[in-house]
Amino acid sequence: MWSSIVSSAIRYERCTNYKNFGEIDTLNEKYQAQASIEARWVVPSVNFFSTLSPLDQDAFNRGKSVSLIKYTETNWHPQLFIENALGDLKEQIRYTARKTSNDQACICEHRDIKGLFWEKLELNHFPSDIQELSVSVGSMFYNDRVLLMPDPYYRSGVNHEAFVDQQEWKLYQHVNVQQRFVREFFESIGDDEYDDINSNEGRKRSLVSVSCHVG
Questions:
Q1: What are the structural domains, with CATH classification, of the chain?
Q2: Whole-angstrom Cα distance, residue 96 to residue 75?
Q3: Of 41, 73, 166, 188, whose CB neighbour count within 10 A is largest?
């Protein structure tokens, strides 16, 4: 079942909402934040339908969102990570499913994170510089299997009321969402799995960065 899912690239759409900002440490180029990240992808509903309770099966068939308990223990998932996290993040992850057609379902990974994040801060004209604060999400899989991209239906945003450092910084309303790729190079490839890959070109991972600005 897994091999049929990952045989071609699966598109994963994601959005991020900043719930809270803490201290912005310009000297050490890091900041504190709490954010909610959602990633969505489509799978055959037969993959998990039998694991649902009768009540959840009925709710799912009526188009309602249902919780998936221990989803990653028996199902393939994109193995997301936070690229610019510093130290251990506090994370809570859960999964839900909603029926999209007779045999398809949209899986949503809900990830609440809290911790420290690294950011390159520009201090050429301190204190008047505009700083970009971002959260970048990537997948452990290369882009031939997982392609991350901004969600066109769910907008990312920021909670201004929960901004802690308001006396020192102004938090702007606008949020940028950007897809980018990180290329990895290999000096030699001995595994048969990678024999068809040109080591000069390397392999790429897709990432999505959601950023806001303070000044």
A1: 2-214 (2.70.170.10)
A2: 13
A3: 41
